[in-house]
Design goal:
The strands form 2 sheets. This protein has a two-stranded antiparallel ribbon. It has one domain. The chain is of the alpha+beta class and 139 residues long. A hairpin with a 4-residue loop joins strand 1 (48-57) and strand 2. Helix 1 runs antiparallel to helix 2 (102-138). The protein is 48% helix and 21% strand. It starts with a helix and ends with a helix.
Length: 139
């Protein structure tokens, strides 16, 4: 029984690590949402994406979530914004802006937050059950 509780703690902790990495990626995207290229026609900051994978933890026989990779979103096109006075403006006065949609980023941040909180709740439940077991054994 104690092994199962420690396994639950390990699984939840892995989930929290994965979601905190996801939050960091979203924060980097939001922080760079106005980062343009420095020269005319240069590509701006490209939105980062995160991919997860299940990994078997052989020590306790449980599937753990891990970050598989942090990549770049090369499917979403850059946003063209008319700013003829910008140093990165092309011949027609347009500047390539990052392919970041703040609404998508906020939804991703909210989903990561909820997943993190769910894992934290599982850790709190496991800890509570362990404390109750210890109290029962003391009697």
């Amino acid at each position: 029984m104690a092994d199962d509780m420690f396994t639950a703690l390990s699984v939840s902790a892995a989930g929290m690590r994965a979601q905190s990495t996801r939050v960091r990626v979203v924060a980097e995207n939001m922080a760079n949402s106005d980062s343009t290229g420095l020269t005319p026609g240069a590509d701006p900051y490209r939105r980062q994406t995160i991919t997860f994978k299940n990994e078997l933890d052989r020590a306790n026989g449980a599937e753990m979530v891990e970050v598989s990779k942090i990549g770049e979103d090369d499917r979403t096109p850059f946003i063209m914004k008319y700013q003829p006075d910008h140093p990165a403006a092309d011949d027609t006065g347009y500047v390539k802006m990052p392919n970041i949609d703040p609404i998508v980023e906020m939804m991703d941040m909210r989903e990561a937050q909820r997943s993190y909180e769910a894992n934290l709740g599982m850790i709190e439940q496991s800890r509570s059950m362990m404390m109750q077991t210890i109290d029962l054994l003391r009697r």
